[in-house]
Write a structure and sequence with these properties.
Largest sheet: none
Distance between the termini: 58 Å
Shape: globular
């Protein structure tokens, strides 16, 4: 079926997007390879399957490393199918640039707004940090000035990154069309799904629901009583859920970075030490809850939750295609081989930007062709009393607000 033919490009997108989310910097550049592969799906098989493959790739990355830093490749995941269809219709550079820049600007504006009003504590704190920095060089920066500087930065980045994205995608799609007949490989690189790995102690659906409850509570307040209650609940849930340890180092690192940013903006914005500490604590807990979600539900559990959610959304365009592609990607057991393949390509290429880009594009084409879909093995789920107890316990920290 057409969706199965899209699993190769979706697998490439998973590899690229995972690397982009894991890298401390340069996520945009790393995600370009995955975006090219998703644009190819939309170009050849339509926007509906293109968006389905994109959604499946993003959900697979969540299953493997959790939801933290999901926004790094999100702009390309959304815009790649659009650019693929525009390229198929022969639309020129400028309309493609406008479409891509619009998606990027909307996404970056939303994430910036979240950072300003949720993480740092509002526009006054955000602008106050700019003003504190500006006063050191003799410049007064007000709220309107801070917003103007932020908007200017978003516009510049949208223009630059979108130009690069459209040019790279165009080069990749043209090369794909010219090289595809000669780059098909006789051997298919299969792999076994890791679905034989043991599941966690709790039903992954209840783990996901409990994490959602904790997220909502953390977004509702930064009161010390609530933060302490959520921390206590999270510590207990971590001990009881038999979580995997692999996601913890990255989660702790990202929590430290986000908490540090929240603390610096709140303190620099004049909100005081107490408020700065509370906002830093909430930022850290948001990341740690996401880390626990991945560790407790595990890859097999999060994949099964995604599969079932997509099944309930089957009337939504691209949801059935996303479910079918997700069932056949099985990227988790093939990441090392894919990484070695792209490293070999890069080591053989001349150390010039165009040559390195062409080496990556050659890997994208070959890796997509070499991928062999693997049938999924559905995971049986049955919620027990202990699972419902976990979900109910996630709401207990709300009592801290009522009693405060």
């Amino acid at each position: 079926m057409a969706a199965r033919a899209a699993t190769g490009p979706a697998h490439v997108a998973v590899v690229s997007f995972l690397a982009a989310r894991a890298a401390p910097t340069g996520g945009f550049w790393i995600a370009l390879a995955g975006g090219v592969s998703l644009a190819r799906v939309a170009e050849r098989q339509g926007a509906r399957l293109g968006f389905g493959a994109s959604a499946a790739a993003m959900l697979e990355t969540v299953a493997i490393i959790g939801p933290a830093r999901l926004g790094v490749p999100l702009t390309q995941a959304v815009s790649a199918p659009i650019l693929g269809r525009l390229h198929a219709r022969g639309v020129g550079f400028w309309p493609q640039l406008c479409a891509c820049a619009t998606v990027r600007l909307l996404h970056n504006a939303a994430t910036t707004a979240f950072f300003i009003w949720v993480i740092t504590g509002g526009l006054d704190a955000y602008a106050g940090t700019y003003d504190a920095i500006g006063r050191r060089v003799g410049i007064e920066v007000g709220s309107a000035d801070a917003l103007a500087l932020t908007l200017a930065g978003l516009l510049v980045w949208a223009a630059f990154a979108s130009t690069v994205q459209v040019l790279v995608y165009g080069r990749g799609l043209r090369r794909w069309g010219a090289d595809a007949p000669t780059t098909q490989v006789a051997e298919k690189r299969g792999g076994e799904r890791n679905d034989f790995l043991p599941a966690g102690r709790f039903d992954p659906r209840m783990v996901a629901a409990a994490a959602l409850v904790a997220f909502v509570l953390l977004l509702s307040s930064t009161a010390w009583a609530l933060l302490a209650a959520v921390f206590a609940w999270l510590a207990l849930a971590w001990v009881l859920s038999r979580p995997e340890r692999e996601p913890l180092p990255a989660g702790l690192g990202f929590a430290a970075v986000l908490a540090g940013g929240a603390f610096a903006f709140a303190l620099g914005g004049g909100l005081g030490l107490d408020t700065a500490l509370r906002r830093a604590g909430r930022a850290a807990l948001l990341v740690l809850v996401a880390t626990w979600l991945r560790a407790a539900a595990r890859a097999i559990g999060l994949r099964e939750v995604s599969r079932r959610v997509l099944g309930r959304l089957r009337r939504v365009p691209s949801a059935p295609e996303a479910a079918e592609v997700l069932d056949a990607i099985a990227s988790e057991g093939r990441l090392a081989a894919a990484g070695r393949a792209v490293a070999a390509r890069l080591s053989e290429a001349p150390k010039r930007p165009a040559a390195l880009l062409d080496a990556v594009l050659a890997w994208v084409i070959r890796e997509s062709a070499a991928h062999e879909p693997v049938p999924a093995a559905p995971m049986p789920l049955r919620a027990r009393a202990i699972d419902y107890a976990l979900l109910a316990s996630a709401a207990v920290p709300a009592l801290a607000l009522a009693l405060a």
